[in-house]
Design goal:
This is Integral membrane protein. The protein has 2 domains: 92 residues, no CATH class; 118 residues, no CATH class. 25% of the residues lie in helices and 22% in strands. The chain is of the alpha+beta class and 260 residues long. α5 crosses α6. The chain is elongated, with a radius of gyration of 20 Å. It is built from 6 helices and 10 strands.
Length: 260
């Protein structure tokens, strides 16, 4: 990774960057795009932002929000492929320089002091801090859903013969039934941007990520769904297709935000 432009203590040594758009944002930070933006003190513009995390010459943690989403997207794609790519957002594209980091990083810039929050400014906002994902709660629930989406094949293999089918007359888990009812409600009353996200899957299928108050659902449009609940630490509930799930997933996919 390259450093952004600057000199001396004002130089930002870039450590990583992430996208913050309705279709793609760090799930650990919130159930939807406006919620994540609110936590960062940013307006939820439809075009989104790129978040650049780094240290200044004194070692202070900073998060720079830029409107140049394509610049950040190109850099992230290059890094994911193991390629070098300069990331130097132009000053005219920078929306905010926020103290602290919203995500936990295990890396640090070489040749500068250890990462630490900058000294607070009078009247300024407190430094950003990562959500506590060490105990079960919304942050860990969302991270669990992320893991299922990334390791779908492994999770799917574990569910053979253990799937709850949603069928007329069936008595599915009360929490799962509530989640499905709220998800159906999204079809008639669309939720805030980012609560429903759709990404590529194998073949012509899509991977759906749907979140709500206290719950997350991961599904493939050609397969089953998995539900995680805040009130049930570490539990993952598979939901079979049955007669209703395929139509629900198709309707949700039609509403979903998709990466450009």
């Amino acid at each position: 990774m390259s450093t952004s432009e600057g000199a001396g203590d004002d130089q930002l040594f870039v450590l990583t960057a992430v996208l913050l758009t309705p279709a793609q944002f760090p799930s650990v930070l919130g159930d939807d795009y406006p919620e994540v933006c609110a936590g960062l003190g940013l307006e939820p513009y439809a075009e989104g932002y790129g978040l650049v995390l780094g240290q200044d010459g004194r070692g202070s943690r900073w998060t720079v929000a830029t409107e140049d989403v394509s610049l950040v997207a190109c850099a992230v794609a290059a890094w994911d492929c193991g390629m070098e790519h300069d990331l130097s957002p132009g000053e005219d594209s920078v929306v905010a320089a926020l103290p602290g980091w919203p995500l936990a990083l295990a890396v640090a810039a070489p040749g500068v002091p250890e990462p630490h929050d900058p000294d607070p400014e009078e009247g300024g906002r407190p430094p950003l801090t990562p959500p506590d994902a060490s105990v079960w709660g919304p942050a860990q629930r969302r991270l669990g859903a992320d893991e299922i989406a990334m390791q779908w094949a492994a999770w799917r293999e574990q569910t053979d013969g253990e799937v709850t089918f949603v069928a007329p007359g069936a008595r599915p888990h009360d929490g799962v039934r509530r989640v499905l009812a709220e998800a159906r409600g999204y079809v008639t009353q669309p939720p805030p941007p980012g609560r429903i996200r759709s990404s590529f899957a194998a073949g012509e299928a899509r991977t759906l990520r749907v979140d709500g108050p206290g719950w997350s659902m991961v599904a493939r449009t050609d397969d089953i769904a998995f539900v995680l609940l805040d009130e049930e630490p570490g539990e993952v509930h598979p939901v079979g297709r049955g007669p209703e799930l395929p139509a629900l997933l198709e309707s949700l996919d039609a509403l979903a935000a998709r990466p450009a």
